[in-house]
Design brief:
Length: 255
Amino acid sequence: MELIPAIDLINGKCVRLFKGDFNKRKDFTKEPHEQAKFWESEGAKYIHIVDLDAAKTGSPRNDESIKKIAKTVNIPIQIGGGIRSHERIKQLFSYGIEKVIMGTSAIENKELVRDLSNEFPGRIIVGIDAKDGKVSTRGWLEQSNILATDLVKEFSSFKIASFIVTDINTDGTLEGTNEEFIKSILEITDIPVIASGGIGSISDLLSLVKFENSGLVGVIVGKALYENKFTISEANNVLSSERLNDFDLNRNYYA
């Protein structure tokens, strides 16, 4: 299970939202490319970027920051936020992005996702953001009546790289993950799953290790890293398979 650090962008700056609320935003001073390079130096194997402006409006506003990150780091990047067309995906790939995340477009244009996953097998991720088990779209501003589990079942026949599943009620809270939600997704798909939302301590990471054999391949962490709850190198050290036996999974490390 890989720890994947997150860079959420608004107006070219690193930010974090509380439960997806644009009005409950915290800005961080480090430039996005500097933050990405620091995390790479800490041992990150991947960078996760969300263009929150594009997610909200559908119009990309952070491409200069995205291109600068891609030129600065030597590790793969996955990006989401407002990706709703073939042209946009090809543009992002031209910047050096490894994988793209389709969220709103996955719900509103499933045929597009099918076509793109056939054209770019293993490079399309479906992002499913849910509140109380139901999918939210357009930067989490619109709530649907579609169950996240139903969407996962439908997309599991596509040639996608993975699912990223986010429980909005835990995102940005640092209060722990929604394990039942993650488990419900893993039980219905053979596609690799990356979890997001709620990680606030090393013990929160360790609580998800039990899902590795069920298909959980990664966990996205943002606020906890920005606020120095733990470092990537500490997390990698703890999560490495040869070290797990040295730790008590019930102990609250770095809480």
